[in-house]
């Protein structure tokens, strides 16, 4: 099983990216890791509402002028590096 997955969400206010990390004890560490990626306005740790999901997720708010697909790729690359196993 993959250690995380991402989903692009569109809301009326701004585009967001949801990151579901299987080990929720890593949420704060991953939030700190992702904070400096360009295109990210802010990151919140939120409780997940849906079934079949982890208890919490990272909600990443994307700047209006940023490409959400590019930011998603940057986030996935950074998390892939973080969770890489030798």
Structural description of this entry:
- The chain is of the alpha+beta class and 86 residues long.
- Strand 1 and strand 2 form a beta hairpin.
- The chain has a four-stranded antiparallel sheet, with helices on one face.
- The protein has helices at 27-34, 68-82, and strands spanning 4-10, 15-21, 40-47, 56-62.
- The chain has a single domain (4-82), classed as 2-Layer Sandwich (Gyrase A, domain 2).
- Helices cover 27% and strands 34% of the residues.
- The chain contains two helices and four strands.
- The longest helix is centred in the last third of the chain and has 15 residues, at 68-82.
- The two termini are 17 Å apart.
- This is HMA domain-containing protein.
Task: Provide keyphrases for this structure.
86 residues; alpha+beta; 2 helices; globular; HMA domain-containing protein
Instruction: Report the order of strands and helices.
Output: EEHEEH
Q: Which strand order do you get reading across the main beta sheet?
A: 1-2-4-3
The CATH topology label is: Gyrase A, domain 2
Proportion of residues in extended strands: 25-35%
CATH top-level class: Alpha Beta
The end-to-end span amounts to 17 Å
> What is the strand tally?
4
Q: How many separate domains?
A: 1
